[in-house]
Amino acid sequence: MKVSVGDVVLPGDYCEEISPKDEKSRVVIGPGLRKEVDHVYITKAGILKKKNPHTYWIDSYQKRYVPIRGENVIGIVTQKAGDIFRVDIGGSTTAALSFLSFEGATKKNRPELQVGDIIYAKLVIASKDMEPELVCVDSFGHKGRLGVLNDGFMFKCPINLVRKILNPKCPLLDSLKNEWPFEMAAGMNGRIWIKANSMRESIALGNAILGAEFLSDSDIKKMCNNIAAILAGHVS
Amino acid sequence: MQDFKLKPMKCELNYLSKSDGSAILSQGDTVVLASVNGPMDIKTVNQSIEKATLEVLFCSKEGKPSVADRYKENIIRHTCETAILGCLYPRTGITLTIQELENYGGLLTCAVNCACLALINSGVGMRHAVAALSCCVDGAGELVLEPTHAQATAARARLHFVFDSREKSLVTGFTEGTFSEGTYEEALARCRAASDLVFAFYRDIVSNYCHVI
């Protein structure tokens, strides 16, 4: 079926707008779209989105992670094997993390990482034919926000929820950050790590995030106010 | 053309919390639950270097595996293998588990449709969606679309078709009983026209949750 931007799409649909008419015009196609001989076909069910001038993608529901290069993910160290750590990032295979890809790490000065630690890392290699590779430094050798996540609490959620709360237009984090202090790391593999001052605040934060999954922006604001009121003790 | 009456369909996506994608579908009184897990790691012997391995498990109500279940598994596996873009996930496995809950005729078509909805929900890359329809030839030689259990058991022939969503071309077809070539052509044409209703239903289900994700 022929569809246009903003429509609900199913696998097998195609969008005439995406196929460039002349050789010079270029389009960028994102997740859920695939070029075949005659058209660009849709491979996932969701909503066709467009960003000007020529970027297209599908917003879809997904729980299972498929590694994509350049994404920040939360992983669990499962094994120490010689020079590398094996990290579970929720994909089909574990990812490799070299012990040299930490800030200030040398052959003599190894990072202290134990099996079971939670790390926030960036995917530098993610190809369907190869094992994914992680790093905990940027290209200048600084760790930035990457590295081991100490204490706190990690939970899993659908991948589209992570995309939703990281969207700058989403009011969830804007509403919550003024209510009580907390730290949060959202991995694009559907894992979220949170740390607040008390257990009560952590639970409230976790519930707020998971509750936002199927709410519209105005409902999210309402829910956040509600949770903040309960937490402050105004409502029991 | 649009006066086809299919059995009323009801569906809930993401019915199971732990699986990667799941759907429960009722067509009339027949109810089927399907769950998809993957792409995930599987044993090296089962891995294929060029595409994902699809494994289908069909669990009947009695719970005892039988030859008839293997037959259904095979049909569903072949149908879904054409629908899934397995080449995007080499050396991985995708598991599709189907549980029969109620059977009042049309179990296999319901199972194929439910499997398709579960795959749509899981976010696995797909070439196209599939829609299964059945048709039977009654004693008087008349075609009955989506027969009831009583009609299907009394019928002279039963025809099942699965269509893709791109060109409505035939993906899978299997028949039982005797019928003429003309009857086959007519049944095929009717089921093909009625498949639009099934695809419209899929779109409806997806649009229910799409606007807030």
Report on this structure:
- Chain B: This is Exosome complex component RRP46.
- Chain B: GO terms for molecular function: RNA binding.
- Chain B: It comes from Bicyclus anynana (Squinting bush brown butterfly).
- Chain B: It is found in: Nucleus.
- Chain B: One of its GO terms (cellular component) is nuclear exosome (RNase complex).
- Chain A: Keywords: Cytoplasm, Exosome, Nucleus, RNA-binding, rRNA processing.
- With 236 residues, chain A is of the alpha+beta class.
- Chain A has three domains: 8-60, OB fold (Dihydrolipoamide Acetyltransferase, E2P); 72-149, Nucleic acid-binding proteins (OB fold (Dihydrolipoamide Acetyltransferase, E2P)), CATH 2.40.50.140; 153-232, 2-Layer Sandwich (Ribosomal Protein S8, Chain: A, domain 1).
- In chain A, 19% of the residues lie in helices and 30% in strands.
- Chain A contains four helices and 15 strands.
- Chain A has helices at residues 159-166, 171-177, 199-211, 217-232, and strands at 8-9, 28-29, 33-35, 40-42, 46-51, 55-60, 72-81, 84-88, 95-98, 118-125, 133-135, 147-149, 153-156, 182-187, 191-196.
- In chain A, the strands form four sheets. Chain A has a five-stranded mixed β-barrel. Chain A has a four-stranded mixed beta sheet with strand order 1-5-6-2, with no helix packed on it.
- In chain A, strand 10 (118-125) and strand 11 form a beta hairpin.
- In chain A, helix 2 (171-177) runs parallel beside helix 4 (217-232) and helix 3 runs antiparallel to helix 4 (217-232).
- The radius of gyration of chain A is 21 Å and the shape is flat.
- By secondary structure, chain B is α+β, with helices and mostly antiparallel strands.
- Chain B has a single domain (9-210), classed as Ribosomal Protein S5, domain 2 (2-Layer Sandwich).
- Chain B is built from four helices and nine strands.
- In chain B, the strands form two sheets. In chain B, strands 1-2-3-5-4 form a five-stranded mixed beta sheet.
- In chain B, strand 6 (130-137) and strand 7 form a beta hairpin.
- Chain B starts with 8 loop residues before the first strand and ends with a helix.
- In chain B, 45% of the residues are buried.
- The mean pLDDT of chain B is 90.
- The interface between A and B is large, with 33 and 39 residues.
